[in-house]
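Students often ask why we bother encoding 3D structure as a string. The short answer is that it lets us treat folding as translation between two languages. Here is a chain of 187 residues written in the first language.
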Amino acid sequence: MKLYIKNMVCPRCKMAVERILSDVGMDYVYVELGEVLLQYPPSEEELNEFIKRIESIGFELLDNQKKMMIEKVKSLLTGLAQQGDIDEHFALGEYITNNINKEYSTISKLFTQLESITLEQYFILQKIEKVKEWLVYNEYSLSEISYKLGYSSVGYLSNQFKKITGLTPTAFKINHKGLRKTLDKVN
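And here it is in the second language, the structure alphabet:
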């Protein structure tokens, strides 16, 4: 039995859900971002306890097919941005279509309808949060960051960064306190 969980955006989220599953006594095959495969269907009591515990830490069990698909798309895009290995000629529509097995236009319309933001905007926001992370931790130069996130130039990345944050990457790096968002709050 598969369960779909909203707001799982990082490895710590997976660990938290794995811990809850173990605590509740629900045997699982795997836990991925936004998805859990259980070995056996849970009892009503186990499921209710699981739901209560995940909600207490900001997750939500999804029961609607459309919501589940959108969460899968969000997990894919968040994971891709977090990997930081995006080709300059990356095609978002092709990537989504290949990974979701539905027409991009259908997914895009549904995403905008449910999230009040376009897929493209969501992906850009995810990439900008990764830029912020790398700037704060001084892991890469701006040139390396733009390459890793598929930007055609440092200038293009800088312009997009300023448009979204109101700051240049350099200004952000100097005064970044409190300006980062958790990945589940990006949109």
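Translate back mentally: The two ends are 30 Å apart (CA to CA). Keep this in mind for the problem set.
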